[in-house]
Amino acid sequence: MPSFCFILLHNEEIETEITMSLERSILLVVGIIVLGSVLLGIYVSPNWFWLTGIMGAHLIQASFTGLCPVVVFMKRIGLPAKPGFT
Length: 86
What we know:
The two termini are 40 Å apart. The radius of gyration is 21 Å and the shape is globular. The chain has a domain at 22-75. 55% of the residues lie in helices and 0% in strands. By secondary structure, the chain is mainly α.
């Protein structure tokens, strides 16, 4: 009885092009701001934690209203909108 089972796959090259979409760029911007404000809050001044809280409140507000200034800016620079999690 063999101890390993091997599955043979075709040797096909799959070309995938990863482009920055509007949704992924929003995740990137918010992640950088939140991480940066937490690090600044730890190492510089606890007042930076206010920025973390404001970003959290803005994310909640944007989820209900659909208003986000960063999205407007990203659309103007021409980032394509497509699902970020597929």
